[in-house]
Structure formats: C-alpha cells, structure tokens
Amino acid sequence: MNTLPTASIKSLIISCIISIVLAIVILLIAILPAEFNIDPTGLGKKLGLTVLAQTSNESVKAAVISCPEVAKATDGKTEAVAWPDSVMITVPARKGLEYKFHVDKGNKLEFVWKTDGAALYFDFHGEPQGNTTGYFKSFKESTLSESSGTLKAPFTGSHGWYWENKTNHAVVIHLKTRGQYKIKGLM
Amino acid sequence: MILTKNSLFTLLLLVFSSSCFAHGVDSNTEHFLTTNEGSAIVPFLYIGAKHMITGYDHLLFLVGVIFFLFRTRDILIYVSLFTLGHSFTLLLGVLAQINMNVYLIDAVIAFSIIYKGFDNLHGFKLLLGKEPSTKIAVLIFGLFHGFGLATKLQDFDLPQENLISNMIAFNVGVEIGQCIALLFVLTLLGFWRRHKSYFAFARTSNTLLMTGGFVLLGYQLTGYFTTL
Fold first, then answer.
1. A contact test, residue of B210, B220, B221, B227 with most A CBs within 10 A
2. Secondary structure in 3-state letters for chain B
3. Could you tell me the pTM of the whole model?
4. Which residue range forms the structural domain that includes residue A97?
5. How many structural domains are present in chain A?
6. Is B39 at the interface with chain A, CB within 8 A?
7. What is the ipTM of this complex?
8. Residues A173 and A90 grouped into a single domain
9. pLDDT 10s digits, A90-127
C-alpha cells in the first residue's frame, strides 16, 4: 500500500494545527468579511472585501426613508422650504413598486425625482377614488433616470408612480414633492 | 470477471446515480427549476453534470478519497459506493419530502473532507490503532451528500409531474459530471504520482485538504448561525 513516508503522532498533530490555524486565518480575513460582512479583524474593510457582502445582498427590501429638507437660516432670514416632502425610495433588484399620493380633483402635485444612476421603467398614473374596475389613467410612461413636472389631478384619487428596476442592483430614487395632497406612500 | 463487475457498477450508476446541489445553484438554474413543467431530460442532465463539476466540496472529497487509491478497480468501487449513498438519499429526500437545514448538511459535507484528510494522514491508525472502514465511511458520507441535494431541490418547489424521470436524468447528469471531474483529477494526480514529490508532499496535500474542509465548515456554520 502506498502511503505517507513517515507517520507519527507528532506530525499528525502538526498537520492538524496547521490546517486549523490556516482555515481560521482564511475565514477571518477573507470569507467572513466578504460573505457575511462579519469583520472581527477590520482587515476585510481595509481590503474592501466587505463591499461584496453588501452588494451581493439579494435581500434588499423596498424601503422609504423620508429626508425632509430643513429650512436653512441664511443672513438671519428663514428661507422657505423648497420641497416640503422629500423621500428616498429603494427599489430592489428586479422588482417593481408603487408610491402614491391622494390628490383631489384640480389640486396640484409638483414633483422632481432622480435615481442614483440607473434608468428605471416607470408609469406615472392615477386611479379614481372608489373605482374597483382596475381602471387607471397613465400620464407618462418611459424609462428614465429622472423626471419632473406638475400634475393637475384630472379626478380625485390615488396618483403616483409605478417604478420597475430591471437591473441586478437595488436602485434608490430621491423623490421631492410639493402641492396639495396626502401621502399614501409605498403600495 | 472484473469486466462483469464493472458493467454491473455502470448499470447501477445509471439506475441510481446521484448527487448534491446543495451549494451553488445559480439564479438562472433556479429560474429554470421553478418554472420548468413536465419532463426535461437534457436540461436536468446538464444541471446534474454542472453541479458536480462546479461543486468544489464534492471535488475535494473526491480527491481525498482517491488520494491513496491506485487501482482502477478500487477507484470504481469507492466512487460507486459514494454514488449509491448519494442517489439513495437524494431520491428518498425528494420523494418523501424530507427537509433539512442546508447549512448543517453542507457542514457535514465539509466535515467529511476533514475526516478524509485526517484519515489519509493515518490519524485514525495512530490514535485508535486501526482504521475505520473507509468503504463504510464513504457510503455514509455519500448518504449525507445526497440529503444536501434533496433539501436544496425541495426549496424550489419542483413540479410533481415527471418528477422521477427528471430526478433520474439529474442523477445520470451528476454521474457524467463526476466522471469528467474524475478524469481531470486522475490525469493530474497520475502525472504527479510518477514523481517522488507526490509522496513527499502527501502530508502537505492532505493538510491542505483538511484546511479546505475547515474553511468550508466555518463558512457553513457561520451561515447557519447568521440565518437562525
């Protein structure tokens, strides 16, 4: 039987220790930071490995973070807030979502939105209140990375966007609005 | 005689063949698995073969098993035992809908690599005075490898229609993949075996094999505890 040149308890123990130590080093420095964002040594972050754990995270959920623009005091005068409602909406990779406002007929919804880079397919539309037939009126449909304008509601109901992220990365939309409406939010 | 035995094994392989997909089922494959309806022999053959060739934990275990096997007949026996174990639990797991935690199963697979490396270093002989039957160990680990696959496959909610024919196609694919992988591993080891360095480096090789096992073990256990 072909076998090891020599076999002794001592060399066995050395082999075991080496393999365990080596495995721990590989795990701590590379695998845990890159795969799980667990970085006990801090080296993973320095090497830039923890980035992998963040971007490869498929479980990014649709999220809305409101980020009101604080009125800035300049020269003792308080400047009017340009956009009273400002939100960051995260659209997960390969997912779509709706963000809506309730606007009464004739009221205005002024808006400006921009993504953090990628263009998104969107459908800006309104659904009359109380309508259960699934009818909706589309105001604008396109694939862009930014858009702005003013909607004068043709009817009372739910108005807003359907955004679809066809990329493999989560996309964040910064949406700013003003006018006469009630925020319904993420649908 | 040997020929008859070999053909018997080949037949067994074709009927029972096996495998384990536990780890890397990529998103395209996943998409196919969940949307596929009815019989799809060739795609399942392909997925099985791909799984085996890209499954580094299987490959490491395979290297460990054949490291000190030099006769074709021995290699065939061990690989067939592994395949039998695999196939049995894969079919049983999917058909009886036995579901286990993928991370834990993969941790056992990682452990099997450590076990084989330790065995190759004569760890058991030195500590216990005798080696446990490698054939039984290979069969047992084959059973675990199969459960890993069965568990993973069930997560995809496979259509019941043609389930068995698809499973068998997958198994045969795994066997094809295993043969291709073996061919590469044996060719490489074969060249190396002609040199003295093969034996001089046997300890290093098996120490590295155990390292790989420990790394996978740590990875799977971390995965298990972070998803609890």
1. B210
2. CHHHHHHHHHHHHHHHCCCCCCCCCCHHHHHHHHHCCCCCHHHHHHHHHHHHHHCHHHHHHHHHHHCCCCCHHHHHHHHHHHHHHHHHHHHHHHHCCCCCCHHHHHHHHHHHHHHHHHHHCCHHHHHHCCCCCHHHHHHHHHHHHHHHHHHHHHHCCCCCCCHHHHHHHHHHHHHHHHHHHHHHHHHHHHHHHCCCHHHHCHHHHHHHHHHHHHHHHHHHHHHHHHCC
3. 0.59
4. 63-186
5. 2
6. no
7. 0.70
8. yes
9. 888 878 889 999 999 999 999 999 998 888 999 999 99
